[in-house]
Amino acid sequence: MSFFSFGARSIRFKFISTAIVIEVIMLSVLIWNGLRLTNYYLLAETETHLNIMTPLINAGLAGPIVQEDLSTLTEILDRMTMGVSVKYIEIQNANLEVLVKKGHLKPQPWLKRDDFIQYMNEEYKQDRFAFREPIYIGSRIVGYANIQMDISVINVALQSLFNQGLVIGILEIFLTVMFLSLIGYALTRHLATLTDSVKEMAKGDYSQHIHVDSQDEIGAVAYAINHLVDEIELNNKKIIMQNEEIAGLTRLSPVGIFQSNEAGECTYANPRWMELSGLTLEKSLGEGWASAIYLDDRPWVYDSWREAVNKQAVFEVEFRLNNHGETVWVAVRAEPQMENGQLSGYIGSVTDITERKRIESTITALAESSSVNDYDEFLRNVVKSLAGAYQAKYAFVGQLLPDKQSVQTLAVWAGDGFVDNFVYELRGTPCEDIIYEGKQLITCNAWRLYPDDAMLKEMSVEGYYGAPLLGAEGSKLGLITVMDTKPMELLPWVEPVLGMFAARVASEIERQQNTEELEVHRFHLEDLVSLRTAEMEALNHELEAFSYSVSHDLRAPLRSISGFSQALLEDYAEKLGDEGKDYLERVRNGAIKMSTLIDDLLDLSRVSRREINMQEVDLTAIAHDVIAEMQVQNPERIVAVSIEDNMQTRGDEHLLIIVMTNLIGNAWKYTSKRVNASIKIGQHMEDGVSVFYIKDNGAGFDMQHAKKLFGAFQRLHHVSEFEGTGIGLATVKRVINRHGGRVWAQAMPEKGAVFYFTIASYDKDISGISDI
Amino acid sequence: MSSFKWLRNALTAGLMSVLMLALIFPGAWASDKPDQRPLRLGLLPYLSTEKLVKTYAPLANYLERQLKRKVIITTAPGFKEYLKRANQGRYDVFFTAPHFAAYAETRYNHSRLARLARSLDGTIVVPADSTIKKISDLRGRVLSTPDRLAVITIQAEQLLAQNGLVPGRDVTIRYASSHNNAMKTVLDGLSDAAISLSALYDKMSPKLKSRLRVLAKTPPIPHAMFMASGKIDKQTCEAIRQSLLAFGESPQGKLFFKNTGFVNFIKISDENMNTVMRFVPALEGRLK
What we know:
Number of domains of chain B: 2
Largest sheet of chain A: 7 strands, antiparallel
Shape of chain A: flat
CATH architecture of the largest domain in chain A: 2-Layer Sandwich
Helix content of chain B: 40-55%
Oligomer: heterodimer
CATH class of the largest domain in chain B: Alpha Beta
Structural class of chain B: alpha/beta
Number of domains of chain A: 4
């Protein structure tokens, strides 16, 4: 133990040494301060003495100096040097000629009297202070008194004070040590006993008690420690008992329990672990536990374990153990044990999840088998999965034949592969009971229970599980069975899983039956569709022929009527008279209207059939063209037109020109009776879609009739008010529909109308949208 | 070879001669150099030393500037010692009583420099209520005088003798340490009469003066004189004389004369010196 390891020293040592240190410090301060004050006051007193003495010297010496009265001066010097303070003095006249001197001169420079304090502070080792004092009469220096004063007395006084202080200090420290040792012994005697006893207890010996007879705080501490020791001993016994209980529980635990150190090495494993792993305790310890892991699982399990240890994280994995060839699925969960913030190890459990894994694999197999489209492959997957799930040798699916007496197998798993399907009689077999009575769960002796079933006996079937296959309406479709040559364990999951397989297979068989039936119907339907298509094509041809007939055959006579009416009006106007001309004019106008109507209908027809040619379309340019055309046709009209710039869209330009021409034409037409007619063409965004509009302040209409607005031959105004065929808006709607868009209107009578339309998404290919 | 020995002996003898001359006549060696020693100014101790220094400090300062030499004021414990020192030449310049000056010039070959422009006379005072009405009434009385060597004292004793009184026998002479103290003894009742400088009596406060009565006055004689030591060279002596004579023109001099009542410094004539020479025998008698 180093002297400087103060913390490890006894309290007595600390107590005495601290007191001594404090004593030394305080005495040092005291002596130093005493010396300082003494020095200060001695110097101040000496300086004062000098200051007082100087005028006296001046008064006493001035006259004799001027008089050069050497005897008087000598007498004065004799008196001045009688004491011990003046070691040497000499009197000079104004010419620095020494008149008298007394004492022994020590060579050193003559200073000023005012330099005394500074000299003493800087040259305190000197024994004399030499100063020159001018002797004045009035303002005239008549001489000098050069004095060497003994200052050693100050240093002697200080040295004496220091020596005495040092002796007193040493004596005081000695007495302090003595007294403190006695007091320390008296105070810490019981503490030492207490400390020794506690050290023994710290070694684990709780049998003894501390014997301190004092009634002070140490006695109270001793009593408290004794009580604490009793409590600790009692708790230790409880802990031992609890440890034994825990050990018993661990030993009997149905799950494996293990412990590891901070390096991940196994330090403990309970018997259940050894049962699950097939390892002995000795082989399990250290890193030996990993040898029980399946070779395929070992790398990643080991990596996971190392990662968890490094990260001090929870270790939670599921893997397989190879227990002497038998696969045991286990779920391991281990939590880190921390001690003072450091990983001290892991404690974990190992749960046997073999059965759960088997169910999972069964369900997985069922799901996988269900995912295949091929009916036969599905059934083969089912029987193979079924045999695997139940770890049985045989499994098959059978379909009840229409005679209800026999079964046709659809898929058969036998041992290690599929075998050919076969037909067998139900009578006397467990299959009969399955189909007509329900599930059969025979764990053993199956072949003995059904002696008439030769096949069972031949196959030495012991365990037999089977379930009926029922249709959606309860119809008996067949059965599903799983068999083994050894007894089969009736676990809780056996029956529901078997039912699940049965239900799935039944639905598949029923679906297969429905599919076959639908296939028959589908062939019939295709024939029907072909027939109807042919009829439609014929009708379409007829319609085209009708259109051709309208466009050519009907328009030719109309042109004749119109033309000859015009000829009559021009050539025989005088003979017809006014009434005749009026009739003929009406005939001509009727023919013209009919021609217009036919043109519109043909346009409508062409709009419907025309193939959409998608391209970039500038609606602003189209609007300008249409307005310009309108203005040419009606140059007398003054209409305030506003067309928004940059109205771009994608569509069939020809069809969109028809739309713009119709909508702008309507606006132009229905504002014809307005003095301050205005038309505004623009666009805005709604829900990310461009909405184009044509707004006018024309005649408007009642919104009650808005539904029939876009119907063919629908007019909201009488023809006498505004001309028209009622085909235009129907054509607009058809074009917009073909573009996947929408058209609608808002209006008020005599307040004008707004027609809105949208085009399908800009980049959307709408060529496939069918007409309505 | 012999001719060189002769030349060497001749040079050695010449050099030795020069060295001898230098040792014998050091003044000649340094004659061309101005005397830079401090000038010792002796003052007759007719006042207390402190008052003496304070009074003559302006003159000393003036001379330092004029002569460009430091001036040391000095005096002596008493008239006798002063006279002795002056005669020994310990003062380069000394201010002394007129009969001392005559004594120094005639006996010690010191040089006269200047004197106070005013005259010196003595006044014999008695208490205002004294029964002493004339000199002869002093018989059997005590007369206080300044120093025994003071010219006033000599004058007083000569006056007593002229009135048929023998000093020391018919009249008890009491020597005071100063002129002031002499008169003070009368005021204090220690003596029946006192002789002092008339100038001091004139300066007395009316209150004190009312307590005294003037019995007689001595005839005026030239006042105190400045003398130069015979060791001072003539050039320096003349410079000092001219400085003293010009002192009254300087501001310090004007103030000095105003404070002292000395009027001015003027030349010492032969007549002045002859006037005071008659006190020299009495002085010499007292010095023995």
